[in-house]
Amino acid sequence: MAKAKPILFTIGYEGATPDALIGELKRAKVKLLVDTRAVANSRKPGFSKRQLAAALDESGIAYLHLQKLGTPAEGRAAARAGDLKTLWKIYEKQLKTPEAKEAMEELLAIVQSGKRVCLLCFERDVAHCHRQRIAEIVHDRTGAVVNNIAPPLF
């Protein structure tokens, strides 16, 4: 019997509360949230690394920050300016760094283990976020089915 394909979720917290995000992760039965932000700080209460990790832990969801899969500062600036072409160019360069390759290998191993994993970043629309590129690579390398989910807006 063929082994089931792994599932990879992605989620953005833009416009959501921490409770709404965690509720959506629980509905999807996610066991590990992988934070793909280069800087895991947020002006939105509850979304900075320590606060988020603690809230997830209370809900039985593990947290892992793969910082090197994040977008460098100049890429984030391009994204804020709506210049997606520049964002993708900068991000492709980032993915070629040894640190990003190592982080990607770690992510691939986790996804292949069958654990229900969700990639996190800020942007609600995955088409405007680097996590889409990460998900494409994971799909290409593992055959994982990618499911983009979104928490209810507050």
Structure description:
A five-stranded parallel β-sheet has the order 3-2-4-1-5, sandwiched between helices. It has one domain (7-146): Protein tyrosine phosphatase superfamily (Protein-Tyrosine Phosphatase, Chain A). The chain has helices spanning 18-27, 49-58, 73-80, 84-95, 98-112, 131-142, and strands spanning 7-12, 32-35, 62-65, 117-121, 145-149. The protein is built from six helices and five strands, in the order βαβαβαααβαβ. The radius of gyration is 15 Å and the shape is globular. It is an alpha/beta fold. It starts with 6 loop residues before the first strand and ends in a 5-residue tail after the last strand. The longest helix has 15 residues, at 98-112.
Which structural traits does this protein have?
single chain; 154 residues; alpha/beta; Protein-Tyrosine Phosphatase, Chain A; 5 strands; 16% strand
Brief digest:
The chain is α/β, with parallel strands linked by helices and 154 residues long. It has helices spanning 18-27, 49-58, 73-80, 84-95, 98-112, 131-142; strands at residues 7-12, 32-35, 62-65, 117-121, 145-149. It has one domain (7-146): Protein tyrosine phosphatase superfamily (Protein-Tyrosine Phosphatase, Chain A), CATH 3.90.190.10.
